[in-house]
Write a structure and sequence with these properties.
The chain is 30% helix and 17% strand. It is built from 9 helices and 12 strands. The strands form 2 sheets. A 7-stranded parallel sheet has the order 8-7-6-9-10-11-12, sandwiched between helices. Strands 2-1-3-4-5 form a 5-stranded parallel sheet, covered by helices on one side. The longest helix has 19 residues, at 86-104. 39% of the residues are buried. The chain binds NADP nicotinamide-adenine-dinucleotide phosphate. Residues 63-64, 88, 92, 136-141, 158-161, 187-191, 193-194, 215-217, 241-242, 265, 267-268, 302 line the site of NADP nicotinamide-adenine-dinucleotide phosphate.
């Protein structure tokens, strides 16, 4: 088969040796000059999508696909698969645990105190004193929920369809989840239904002194509403990995706000060493004429 690798971000030199050794009989191309069977893409160079009309599968090299779905050049009718990479899921789980523990153990306050040379010990809480709300109980949210349960936290999760995860309160009502939550982790896909989901009214439902951890997409959070909730003291701290505009502009107040810890969209990166087996599995399915795994539902937008 002819397999296109097209990405302005993912390093071809890390992917291609692994792909070639797993699929020695296939031909890999870096440009869609002729008809191709499968396209492996993540932020492809301009003009790539227009050339994929006859492809049997577009395999995203990322978990979030909202940009591809919004691109009018995407060839409608060609199935699109998300990448569910075990290395990326593990990395995201580590990031969730790190931020939840930072908030729960008040380490963000100890960092502030260190900067001021202040020796002061805060009250200690048990994990079971706190409820972590997870928006999105998909591949990432479910794994984070399980690991947080293992640490003893109460966990409440929101999803579109009802879910059953052992020990986790789950609901299709976001209000029910937020009202129980001390700290909220956003792991939703960005769709018309989830854009702006954490606005003034929703943030007000989180318990006082709580935290927000957004590791999904910037537009899930209404930033002026978040800053108001931090400035009023309703929320104690926010952890943001994703932003409306990336890189975050130098003039953004988020850079220097004392209530914000930020990272440069680095919560979880695709890890070729663990992802290649998943990509190969989908290519083999296409070869056998079977539907690929993790196909995107175009109507739902994820
Ligand atoms: P997923 O498996 O598709 O799960 C999405 C979850 O969100 C599902 O539980 C889904 O409900 C729920 N959901 C979607 N729309 C909803 C709505 N309108 N109301 C309530 N719940 C809704 O996605 P994933 O693989 O976990 O990834 C989630 C997102 O994380 C990605 O789309 C991407 O944007 C982001 N991400 C960020 C990074 C980073 O480095 N910052 C890295 C990887 C991924 P159902 O279960 O009912 O379908």
């Amino acid at each position: 088969m002819k397999i296109l690798f097209a990405s302005q971000v993912e390093p071809a030199e890390r992917w291609l040796p692994l792909l070639r050794s797993s699929l020695p009989g296939d031909e890999f191309l870096l440009e869609a000059k002729s008809a191709i069977d499968v396209a492996l893409i993540a932020s492809p160079p301009p003009g790539t999508l227009e050339r994929l009309k006859g492809a049997k599968l577009v395999q995203s090299l990322w978990m979030g696909v909202e940009k591809l779905l919004a691109d009018p050049a995407y060839p409608r009718g060609v199935p699109l698969a998300r990448l569910v990479d075990p290395g990326m899921v593990a990395a995201m789980t580590e990031t969730v645990l790190y931020h939840v523990l930072d908030w729960h153990r008040r380490f963000y306050r100890y960092r502030e105190n260190q900067a001021q040379g202040r020796w002061h010990r805060f009250r200690q809480y048990l994990a079971s004193d706190h409820t972590v709300g997870i928006l999105g109980l998909g591949e990432l949210g479910t794994e984070a929920a399980r690991k947080l349960r293992a640490l003893g936290f109460n966990v409440a999760g929101w999803s579109r369809r009802p879910k059953s995860i052992e020990g986790v309160f789950s609901s299709t009502s976001i209000a029910e989840v937020l009202q129980r939550s001390d700290v909220v982790v956003c792991l939703l896909p960005l769709t018309d239904q989830t854009r702006g989901v954490l606005d003034k009214d929703r943030l007000a439902l989180i318990k006082k002194g709580g935290g927000v951890i957004n590791l999904a997409r910037g537009p899930h959070v209404v930033v002026p509403d978040l800053l108001s909730a931090l400035d009023s003291g309703h929320l104690a701290h926010a952890y943001l990995d994703v932003f409306d505009e990336e890189p975050l502009p130098a003039a953004s107040p988020l850079w220097r706000h004392p209530g914000v810890t930020l990272t440069p969209h680095a919560a979880a990166l695709t890890e070729p060493r663990t992802a290649v087996a998943k990509v190969v599995e989908n290519i083999e399915r296409v070869r056998r004429g079977e539907p690929a795994l993790n196909l995107v539902d175009f109507a739902a937008g994820y």
